Amino acid sequence: xxxxxxxxxxxxxxxxxxxxxxxxxxxxxxxxxxxxxxxxxxxxxxxxxxxxxxxxxxxxxxxxxxxxxxxxxxxxxxxxxxxxxxxxxxxxxxxxxxxxxxxxxxxxxxxxxxxxxxxxxxxxxxxxxxxxxxxxxxxxxxxxxxxxxxxxxxxxxxxxxxxxxxxxxxxxxxxxxxxxxxxxxxxxxxxxxxxxxxxxxxxxxxxxxxxxxxxxxxxxxxxxxxxxxxxxxxxxxxxxxxxxxxxxxxxxxxxxxx
Length: 258
Known about the structure:
Elements: H1 3-22, H2 32-49, H3 52-62, H4 73-90, H5 103-113, H6 118-166, H7 175-226, H8 231-238, H9 244-257
Helix pairs in contact: 1-7, 2-6, 2-7, 3-6, 4-7, 4-8, 5-7, 6-7, 7-8
């Protein structure tokens, strides 16, 4: 579970709800027609921008913003160095049936066991990485589009409410409540864009970047293992994926353990 996403979204919603409850007549913030225009209209307009599988797949991908967690880079490097040591001592057949932290890594290991050349392994894994990127990018695009459409639908709802209000000016007492209802659609649109669609789109983009970097790490290591590169050299090569502060500490930890 990604607690940053959960705490951020729930905390923002809680603050808005608290502000509404502490104000006068919180019931005025609920309006069925406004919700219908903003929520229903936004979903339908976004659906028109994408295919049905892309649209439905985006909501499945949204779960990655809350649940999906990748292995740490340092942990992955240690796992890959261990794999390289096994392959050097026992041969690549010694890797068969090994429990691994990533299905992507598992596919690469199976290619090693099957005796695929390094160029083929790199080509197939790069293709797998690009397909994963495209899948994640599609989900992020859907929520980015929703973040763009929801405020516009809110403005459309407000204009509809204003037209209805101005067409019925005979009763001055009805102007205030009608104006409040008209403005609710703008509020709903802004909330969906700012508190839901935008954060999910950004988190999916972050997940996409992190996963692509990890898959590149796996690919580089597997190609090096196939070429018979020394595990220590592989470790030094993979340390470039670490942040500079952790990269500097890696040799110190190795020296201390030696």
